[in-house]
Amino acid sequence: MKFRTTPQIIVIGVFALVTAIGLSAQNEKTSACCCQRLDNTLNSIYILFERAGFSTENNKTEPFVWLRLRNNTTCVFSLLTEGFPYYFDGKYRSNALDGEEIAVYFEFQKDKTREYYKYRDSFAIVKIPPGISVIFKVPAKYFKVKRLVCVPIEYEWEIGDIRHEVSFHTDMLPRDWEKALSAPDK
User: Fold this and answer.
1) 105: which of 57, 80, 121, 132 fits an S-S bond (Cβ 3.0–4.6 Å)?
2) Mind listing the pLDDT tens digit for each residue in 19-69?
3) Considering the entire predicted model, what is its pTM?
4) Claim to verify: residue 22 and residue 72 sit in the same structural domain
5) Is residue 21 situated within a structural domain?
6) What is the DSSP string of 34-46?
């Protein structure tokens, strides 16, 4: 019996091979990360309102909103911070500490336009270990209109131009958040 090769058989064979390779690569990627939520009632990574108040930047007192970004997974992710790398006892430290306030790089989205808020000209990468939360501040003036605060993150197993982000919408602020901004503490 003679076996004939037709274009359809070749296409099916190539498709099966590509699918098998793709599934194998996907399984390797999934087993490399194995991220699980620590608390299944909450999102994997989320941002919550912490407080509103005043802070002095460049000898000027301004109103800010502090937000808390929490890693609710068993995986480490990284984010960009503005400023220099972190040092502790004279040694470089790449992991954030729980509850630490850092200058997180973030962007604002209003409608379809994006802009980023710039503290400084230098950047560093900080890792957020499982279960850890960090606090960052956002100028309160950006919450006067409906916007998203978007923080780009990257999982440690990812390579390339993959972008994830966690966001906080101005609608998520408590109703009376502006009361804390009635007058700066003296």
Assistant:
1) 80
2) 444 433 333 443 455 789 999 999 999 999 999 999 887 788 899 999 999
3) 0.74
4) no
5) yes
6) ---BSSTTS-SEE
